[in-house]
Amino acid sequence: MNVDHPSRRPKSDILSLIALHKKEASLASLIAFVLLVACINSYLTNPEESKIVSSTRLASLEESNGGNTLSEITLGEVTYSGSKTMPYYHCGPLPLPLPGSPDNEHMTELVLLHGAAFTKEDWRDSGILQSLCDVNDGSTGAEDQSIRKLSDSRYYYPRPLSVTALDLPVPGEGDIFYDAIQSLASQHVLSGNPVVIVSPSAGGRAIVSLGEMAVAASSSSEEEEDEEEQRDQRQTPPLLEKTIKAWIPVASGAVLRTTDEVLELFPKVGVEILSINGNLDYAGRRSTERLVDVCGAKGVELKGTHPVYLDSPEEFVDEVLKFMIEKEL
C-alpha cells in the first residue's frame, strides 16, 4: 500500500500548503484584531453607555432572583452585634457578592435611619421610600432633565439606586450602627462600599458617635509609641471614610452636643453633608447653621416642623436627589 507521506510530496506542493495555512492564520488574526478595536472604540466614544449596560445587566440578574422589580419594596431582617435582629425595607439593585466588583461601583446606596418617635414604617407610609425606589424605573435618562418629571410626577436619578430603611435602635451609638452596616454587607444587602446616610433627629446620634469614635481612635494612635503599630493603624481604612460617603442629617440634635473637632473630621475625610430643617423648627435650624459654619455643609430649609421630611415629603425627595446628583454620589 502506498502512503502519501508529506516527505514524498513535491516540494512545490508543500510550500503551497504552508502558504495556505499562513493565509488562514493571518485572516483569523485580522478578524480578531478588528473586533477588539471595535470594542475599545465603542467604550472610548461612549463610556457612560457601557456603565449603563453593566448596571442593567446587574439589574436583570437581581430581577431574575425572586422576580422583584427594582422599584419594588421588600422586607428583610439582618442579624448584627452577635444575636440582635433588625428588620429593614429594601428596594433597588442588590450588590454582586464579589469583592471589588465594578458593577457595585455603578450604583448609589442610600440608607435611611429614623428619629426616636418614628420607625422605618414612616418612610414607607409617607410615600418617601416608594418615591426613592421609583427612580430605578427611569435611571437611564438624560442628566439635564429636572429631578421630578412633570408629566408623571416621577423622580429622576442617573444611576441605579439601592435604598434601605433600617429600624436601628434610637438613640444608637456608632459601634451599633457600624455593626449593622457591616452585617448588611455580609448578607449582600449592601456592597460594603461607603453609603449615603439620611439621619432624622435622634437618628443622627449614631453618625456623630461614629465621628467621635474616629477622633478617639486617631488620638490614641498618635500617642502610641510603637512605630510599627502606628504604621499598621494608618494602613487601616478610617472608620468614617470606610462607612459613609455622604451624610444628610435632618434636625440632628447630636450636632449641637458634640465638638468642632468631631464635626470637622467629616469634610476632612471627604464626607459630603446636606443638612435639612423645617422653617418652624428652631433647634433644627441651629443644627443646620452649625454644620454650615463648621463643616461647610449645604443647608436647606423646607416648610414644616421638626420631622420636616414628613411635612414636605416631595420637596424632601427633590432635595436629596438633587444633592446626590450635584455631588456625583
Model description:
This protein has helices at 11-45, 47-64, 120-125, 128-134, 174-186, 204-223, 227-235, 239-243, 260-268, 282-295, 308-311, 313-326, and strands at 74-80, 84-91, 108-112, 161-166, 195-200, 244-250, 272-278, 298-302. By secondary structure, it is α/β, with parallel strands linked by helices. An eight-stranded mixed β-sheet has the order 1-2-4-3-5-6-7-8, with helices on both faces. The longest helix has 35 residues, at 11-45. The radius of gyration is 27 Å and the shape is globular.
Helical residue percent? 40-55%
Sheet with the most strands? 8 strands, mixed
Number of distinct helices: 12
Overall shape: globular
* Total beta strands: 8
Question: Which strand-content bin applies to the residues?
Answer: 15-25%
What is the compact description of this entry?
The protein has helices at 11-45, 47-64, 120-125, 128-134, 174-186, 204-223, 227-235, 239-243, 260-268, 282-295, 308-311, 313-326; strands at 74-80, 84-91, 108-112, 161-166, 195-200, 244-250, 272-278, 298-302. It is of the alpha/beta class.
